[in-house]
Amino acid sequence: MTVTFKEKFNLTDNMSHTEKYDTIIDGLGYEAVKQYIPVSRNRIIEALKTDEHLNNININVWDRAAGYEMRMSQDRRMVPVPFGCFNLKSYCIQQGVNCMSPAELVCILKRCAVRWANEPQNEKE
Q1: pLDDT by residue (tens digit) across 70-106?
Q2: What is the spatial distance between Cα 14 and Cα 18, in angstroms, rounded to a whole number?
Q3: Which of 13, 44, 101, 111 could covalently link to 117 via disulfide, CB atoms 3.0 to 4.6 Å apart?
């Protein structure tokens, strides 16, 4: 049986993008999701100065952290690169969501990164 984020977290079609991904992050656990963010908080803060969607951080960095990456094969086809278990996709599967897209996972990571960047800064950071 497949379980989507929509089913797991009772998402509705009238939720905004931010509300949808905040609900998913809160359901998965903000601190847990945050550990998969592939760049430092300072880099996120700097990136947000010029792009609120963090598209100025290479998509391959986000894809890798999400658990997806595509590479060109020798016969010029795009093929997935296998990863270990430390990625957001593996974590979501552990949490009972087994049907997701790479785009959803990247959106989760980026929204979590924005939330992290907007937290009050600790003296340790």
Answers
A1: 666 677 766 556 555 679 999 999 999 999 999 999 9
A2: 12
A3: 44
DSSP H or E run through 1: none
Closest residue by Cα to residue 112 from 66, 56, 50, 59: 66
Using CA atoms, how far apart are residues 75 and 100, in angstroms rounded to an integer?
28
Calculate ∠ Cα 63-99-18, nearest 5°.
Answer: 65
Q: What is the pTM of this model?
A: 0.88
Q: Residue 112 CA to chain centroid, in angstroms?
A: 7
Cβ 101 vs Cβ 54: under 8 Å: no
Span 54-69, average pLDDT: 91
